[in-house]
Amino acid sequence: MTEAIVGRKGSRRRRRLGLFVPLAAVAALVLAIGASAGPVSDAAGFEGDDGNLAPQAPINFDWNSFAPTTWTGTAPTRTATDSAGGWDFTGLEDWQNTGADSAFAGGTKQDDNCASVITQKAPNKDDLKRYYLANKTDPVSGDIFIALAWARIPQNTTSASAHVGFEFNQGDTACGAASDGLVERTAGDLLIVYDFEGGSDDPRITLREWVASGACEVGSNSPPCWGPATDLTALAFAEAEVNVGTSVLDQVADPDETLNDSEFGEAIINLSDAGVFTPGECIAFGKTFAVSRSSGNSAQAQMKDLVGPGDINIQNCGSIIIRKQTDPSPDPTGTSFDYTTMGGLVPATFSLVDGGSENFQSPEILAGPYSVTEADPGPNFVLTAIDCSASDLSAGSTATPDLVNRTVDIQLEATDTVDCTFVNTLQTGALRILKNSTKGGAVSNPGAVFSYDGSSVTDNGAGDEDPDIGEVCVSGLLTGTYTVNETSPPPGYGDATEMDLTATVVAGTNCTDNLPTGAGVVTFTNAPLYDLQVNFRDGGSGETSATISCPALDPADSTTPPAGWDTSSTYQGREAPATVTCTIVIDP
Q1: What is the pTM of this model?
Q2: Do both 522 and 539 map to the same domain?
């Protein structure tokens, strides 16, 4: 007997040749089968072709590696998610041996989009009770692998065939209430069919894509439809096995369950080799379901028991999120910060304000190298942190901040999310205003009012911004040059002689432990004021009179004499120091 076997070699060939050797040798070969692995399983690091769930050498990773697994929801339609060894696991339960089971309406074919879902008892061989899926992106090769498994109810015969379609959808548009959670198909959706004819026959794994134009698998159909099938087993892109002639222990189930002869089937597939994920094209599958089929690998087979749908995340893409945060927040300046990117991110440039974000979400971003750089935020801000701690780097992505160059370098792996926040600190400083008298030393009276670029401050001798009478310190100012003026002198003093003085605010200066110096200080000088009054009165004879003149001060503010005086000149608010000469002419 000769037979060409394309795909997984070794275990299958030995199994066929075992028919010609004594029973003891057969037993030895069965043990060898359990410990062998095909090239896809070896590359994936998952025992997807031995027909059991138990990890064993040399790979030491199988379905039971996810145990114990937490199932949520209400039995018998619970779901489970888990991760181990770089693999993400999804489990879907289903009704068993009951008329309450979900199924497709009678006559539904695989090509029927958004088919109606009903409740109906499935035939014995088609009654699925669990669907397992695991996916992984190899960190070295970048290949995307999936492992698939089905479990069905106890069989009436040990030679029952199994035909299961595993569908993977990219879209999220619901079909409608009658379709019980199914979504509309879009071009590029996947259908993987697992055909096992029963007994010692090897399973056959085929793949087809949903097409909007071109040839259909069923020649009499018209697009949209499932395109022609590709035999992944023949191309050595997939390996599969069923637990024929033995029982296996399922520890992923809750509780643990023994699956008897031909009740468990599994497969391992390299989707990258199969051409599903190609360089330069971003693809993401978010929904899946399994359905048993009445027979064969023909797309005309009727759809039977439905398991799912459920949520998954299989993609060759990742996500990058850049966020902006200022200190203080909210940003009192409303500054917009500019960014440039490298690696092909879209948009290539963008701007963010405090609290904003730019989301480069899958399926827009292929795995690969990227960088994001912030433009110089000076002089008002400085970049003080690039915080990527919110990232999900479970698939091996890296995010390397470089504060000096204001850049984060990213190596993005599929399914990861790099989430980085650029933190900018507002640069503030202080300016000081000194108040001097023309007679020397600081002005001793409070009350002077000053302006700086539209704002004002009063010298009142209290608070952080006014540490002492005769001095004003203003903190929390943006760096730069300010024009300062005295808008109102203190009581008892005249107007300052200076106008439009400039003060330079340096980052880090304040009004407590790092006072401004040098160009950060301006001084206004004011002359103190005095009042002068010159009076004359007759000595009692009633024959004298006088005129009073102070030329440097005239005109007088008042010439009304106080009570008991005949003539007076009053001069108020005159600046000191001064020498005043007054002339009093008596009996003019």
Answers
A1: 0.67
A2: no
